[in-house]
């Protein structure tokens, strides 16, 4: 019997190994195809520093290409063969295939290895989903002890460095799944799958037993649902279990509740290791925990309607992607000298970022919700009366009233003659954004057109946005009922679609399980292409709750969903935003002060005022500056004079910084830069800087260190090495490579400026419609500096035709001269004369030198 089992085991083992055995290879003009025992491994150079790898078995292959839309000329590459290896090389990257192990290893042009697959980790296991054949696709990569990994989209688990963490990548409210990571080792990795994906999946299941039904707190609350405001029971159940681990170490613990929940609570040996509460929380959450070898007890609390699954994995210095519903194994490696180059390579293949209109970088006023056209107009009038700058006001849901849920049409009962109130908003130098959903009432007049064309996903409230006819019909409805009335931008809500709703559904391309991460990409596509085709003179601006690879090409802004309001939630938004920006998506924001807020007491609660003020300060240095809140009057004056004054001063600063911000936005579109910059982007050689989860650069000049605790008057800030830094508020100079305690009164956020920076600041204005022809050019001395000040017509695509201007500004530290070079280019109604006050900042008290000049587009050299 033992002999039979042994022979069977050897047979299984040989099958596993044989699947990876090298047989032969074929080189063509665009790829290297390696024939393995059970499949074909294709190595495809996409550009000089980007390589795509596809492992296919049989003829099964994903027919759709959603992400890699740009196909540049195949770069030159060569192949070198030895007895043990194949080496494919472009000018910037070499891929080595080991004939014995079938492992791929990636090195730069100097020969330094920056990424390697893990031996025996390439997996294509036959499977099925709803009767349809597929594969479990898995690939592991070596992860050195000192590696930092970032990206994967926007998650609420609080992780900054993703090394060894476990995540379930699905699209739900507050969570955006983008299977793309960047490493401090000099590479980016795109896992090219459209369905459910696990990052570092766990491998040890913990059995749980339900103790009691409905144990714990019972209460009812109002929450936002796809059917409007509903009262939802918060009944909870308790599960318990035990488990053992063989060795001491760090373990990744994953809780998967199967559906959205309001509580993530896991206790190990009586200590809560995961503890979050909010009216919406993602189905899955993980935590890195240190465990001793031996037995442990565990307890989980969740909603009674959910069934928790708990599992763990010992951290072992590997990075693994696993997709259980795949048609092939497919990933792309991007190499780069820095993170900017990696993201540039990624965007060049997946789509570059169009310019948002200038007004999008002003202040967005939003609440849940304005109740009439008059309400919207009167609010903007009050902003103007109080000298509170604002550029956008947003109409949240329910404006459709009698027309039925989600119907994109104003109910005239409260929004009579909508084109008139929108014109009033425009006449007040503001812009109008409106909420749109993709689950409109099928019984409505507008919805019936979708039904008659079979444009809904069968047995679902959501339209099948993958169908080109749906995209056309949907845009026509938005155009006829909203855009032609003067709507300026789109708030595409619940574009996940809400709560992972593609599972088990049939969509235009086939079974929805294969595409359940991609719905937001197609919503954005429909609106972007629809508007550009309808009115190519007006820039598209889309605020949306979810995203997928490549979505940056559709002028989208994402926000972090229906989050809570406490300090822990606020801290997690900072980390979520930094990782989101490292997936190549440059425009992101949050609900300032949280979506779910502490009820009617918030208007007088000084403790809430403190976090609201700190959040507001941080949001000034977000790519998009936006207020929102559930069932809340979010206008600054609602919180009293002190809060309003603090907000006004920070709003004024945001508008003063618009010349800097808009110029940095141009660098996003022109050179694939990023505005909200985790410190890996500029200080990758400084490991202390790279590890900072709550500091980042805003553009190339500003170091932002938001205050994330209550009752603080002083705040520790790490200043990265190899640069001196200037306190933005005082001008005081500090050497880099140290942590300093800086003053942080309630009306100030710690901000530092890197030496060798030029920062243009404008005069205070109330909207971006006003001219900023009076500028203060701040020169932070110590090193040579350059800055290109950009401007254009603000809200059309003429910049794509060369209608814009650039003013190169150069500081020469040795000669102590500032050169404003000849203006490059021009545009309609451009500013012809700037009054520029030059201010040199060197860090010594009373040492600032100020000179004023007129700049008319001709070169000016100013000596300090």
TrEMBL record:
<dbReference type="InterPro" id="IPR051816">
    <property type="entry name" value="Glycosyl_Hydrolase_31"/>
</dbReference>
<dbReference type="GO" id="GO:0005975">
    <property type="term" value="P:carbohydrate metabolic process"/>
</dbReference>
<comment type="similarity">
    <text>Belongs to the glycosyl hydrolase 31 family.</text>
</comment>
<dbReference type="Pfam" id="PF01055">
    <property type="entry name" value="Glyco_hydro_31_2nd"/>
</dbReference>
<dbReference type="InterPro" id="IPR013780">
    <property type="entry name" value="Glyco_hydro_b"/>
</dbReference>
<dbReference type="Pfam" id="PF21365">
    <property type="entry name" value="Glyco_hydro_31_3rd"/>
</dbReference>
<dbReference type="InterPro" id="IPR017853">
    <property type="entry name" value="GH"/>
</dbReference>
<dbReference type="GO" id="GO:0004553">
    <property type="term" value="F:hydrolase activity, hydrolyzing O-glycosyl compounds"/>
</dbReference>
<dbReference type="InterPro" id="IPR048395">
    <property type="entry name" value="Glyco_hydro_31_C"/>
</dbReference>
<dbReference type="GO" id="GO:0030246">
    <property type="term" value="F:carbohydrate binding"/>
</dbReference>
<protein>
    <recommendedName>
        <fullName>Glycosyl hydrolase family 31</fullName>
    </recommendedName>
</protein>
<dbReference type="InterPro" id="IPR000322">
    <property type="entry name" value="Glyco_hydro_31_TIM"/>
</dbReference>
<keyword id="KW-0378">Hydrolase</keyword>
<dbReference type="Pfam" id="PF17137">
    <property type="entry name" value="DUF5110"/>
</dbReference>
<dbReference type="InterPro" id="IPR033403">
    <property type="entry name" value="DUF5110"/>
</dbReference>
<feature type="domain" description="Glycosyl hydrolase family 31 C-terminal">
    <location>
        <begin position="673"/>
        <end position="759"/>
    </location>
</feature>
<feature type="domain" description="DUF5110">
    <location>
        <begin position="774"/>
        <end position="840"/>
    </location>
</feature>
<feature type="domain" description="Glycoside hydrolase family 31 TIM barrel">
    <location>
        <begin position="354"/>
        <end position="663"/>
    </location>
</feature>
<dbReference type="InterPro" id="IPR011013">
    <property type="entry name" value="Gal_mutarotase_sf_dom"/>
</dbReference>
<keyword id="KW-0326">Glycosidase</keyword>
């Amino acid at each position: 019997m033992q002999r039979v089992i042994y022979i069977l085991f050897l047979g299984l083992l040989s099958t596993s190994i044989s699947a990876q055995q090298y047989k032969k290879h074929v080189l063509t003009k665009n790829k290297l195809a390696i024939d393995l025992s059970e499949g074909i491994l294709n190595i495809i150079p996409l550009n000089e520093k980007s390589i795509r790898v596809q492992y296919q078995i049989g003829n099964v292959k994903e027919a759709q290409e959603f992400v890699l839309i740009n196909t540049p000329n195949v770069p030159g590459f060569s192949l070198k063969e030895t007895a043990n290896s194949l080496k494919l090389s472009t000018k910037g990257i070499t891929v080595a295939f080991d004939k014995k192990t079938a492992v791929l290893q990636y090195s730069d042009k100097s020969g330094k290895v920056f990424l390697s697959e893990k031996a025996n980790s390439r997996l294509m296991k036959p499977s099925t989903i709803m009767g349809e054949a597929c594969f479990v696709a898995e690939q592991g990569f070596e992860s050195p002890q000192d590696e930092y990994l970032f990206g994967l989209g926007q998650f609420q688990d609080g992780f900054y460095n993703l090394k060894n963490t476990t995540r379930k990548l699905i699209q739900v409210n507050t969570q955006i799944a983008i299977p793309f990571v960047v490493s401090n080792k000099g590479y980016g990795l795109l896992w090219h799958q459209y369905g459910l994906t696990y990052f570092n999946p766990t491998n040890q299941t913990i059995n749980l037993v339900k103790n009691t039904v409905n144990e714990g707190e019972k209460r009812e609350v109002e929450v936002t649902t796809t059917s409007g405001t509903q009262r939802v029971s918060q009944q909870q159940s308790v599960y318990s279990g035990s488990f053992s681990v063989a060795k001491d170490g760090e373990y990744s613990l994953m809780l998967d509740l199967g559906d959205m929940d309001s509580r993530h609570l896991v206790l190990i040996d009586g200590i809560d290791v995961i503890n979050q509460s909010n009216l919406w929380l993602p189905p899955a959450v993980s935590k890195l925990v240190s465990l001793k070898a031996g037995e442990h007890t565990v307890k989980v609390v969740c909603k009674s309607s959910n069934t928790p699954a708990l599992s763990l994995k010992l951290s072992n210095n590997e990075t693994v992607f696993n997709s259980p519903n795949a048609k092939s194994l497919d990933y792309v490696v991007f190499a780069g000298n820095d993170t900017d180059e990696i993201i540039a390579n990624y965007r060049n293949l997946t789509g570059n970022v169009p310019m948002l209109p200038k007004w999008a970088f002003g202040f967005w006023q939003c609440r849940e919700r304005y109740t009439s056209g008059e309400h919207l107009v009167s609010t903007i009038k009050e902003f103007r009366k109080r000298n509170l700058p604002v550029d956008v006001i947003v109409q949240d849901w329910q404006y459709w009233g009698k027309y039925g849920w989600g119907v994109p049409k104003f109910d005239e009962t409260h929004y009579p003659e909508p084109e008139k109130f929108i014109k009033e908003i425009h006449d007040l130098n503001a812009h109008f954004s409106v909420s749109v959903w993709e689950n409109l009432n099928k019984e409505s007049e507008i919805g019936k057109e979708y039904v008659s064309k079979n444009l809904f996903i069968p047995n679902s409230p959501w339209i099948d946005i993958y169908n080109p006819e749906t995209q056309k019909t949907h845009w026509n409805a938005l155009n006829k009922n909203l855009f032609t009335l003067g709507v300026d931008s789109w708030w595409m809500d619940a574009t996940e679609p809400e709560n992972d709703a593609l599972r088990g559904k049939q969509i235009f391309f086939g079974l929805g399980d294969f595409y359940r991460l991609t719905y937001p990409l197609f919503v954005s596509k429909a609106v972007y292409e629809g508007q550009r085709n309808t009115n190519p003179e007006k820039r598209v601006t889309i605020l949306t709750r979810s995203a997928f690879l490549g979505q940056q090409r559709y002028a989208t802004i994402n926000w972090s969903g229906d989050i809570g309001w406490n300090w822990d939630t606020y801290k997690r938004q900072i980390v979520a935003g930094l990782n989101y920006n490292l997936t190549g998506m440059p425009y992101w924001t949050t609900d300032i002060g949280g979506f779910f807020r502490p009820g009617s007491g918030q208007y007088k609660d000084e403790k809430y005022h403190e976090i609201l003020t700190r959040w507001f300060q941080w949001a000034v240095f977000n790519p998009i500056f936006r207020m929102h809140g559930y069932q809340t009057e979010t206008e600054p004056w609602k919180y009293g004079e002190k809060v309003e004054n603090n907000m006004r001063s920070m709003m004024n600063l945001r508008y003063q910084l618009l010349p800097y911000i808009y110029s940095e936005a141009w660098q996003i579109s022109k050179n694939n830069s990023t505005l909200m910059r985790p410190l890996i982007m500029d200080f990758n050689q400084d490991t202390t800087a790279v590890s900072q989860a709550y500091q980042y650069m805003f553009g190339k000049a500003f170091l932002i260190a938001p205050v994330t605790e209550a009752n603080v008057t002083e705040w520790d800030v790490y200043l990265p090495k190899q640069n001196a830094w200037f306190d933005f508020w005082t001008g005081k100079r500090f050497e880099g490579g140290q942590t300093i305690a800086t003053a942080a009164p309630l009306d100030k956020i710690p901000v530092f400026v890197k030496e060798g920076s030029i920062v243009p600041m404008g005069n205070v204005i109330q909207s971006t419609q006003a001219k900023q022809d009076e500028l203060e050019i701040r020169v932070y001395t110590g090193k040579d500096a350059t800055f290109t000040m950009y401007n254009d017509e603000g809200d059309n695509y003429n910049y794509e035709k060369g209608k814009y201007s650039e003013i190169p500004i150069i500081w020469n530290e040795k000669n102590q001269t500032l050169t404003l070079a000849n203006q490059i280019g021009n545009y309609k109604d451009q500013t012809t004369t700037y009054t520029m006050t030059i201010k040199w900042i060197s860090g010594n008290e009373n040492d600032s030198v100020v000179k004023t000049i007129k700049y008319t587009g001709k070169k000016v050299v100013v000596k300090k």
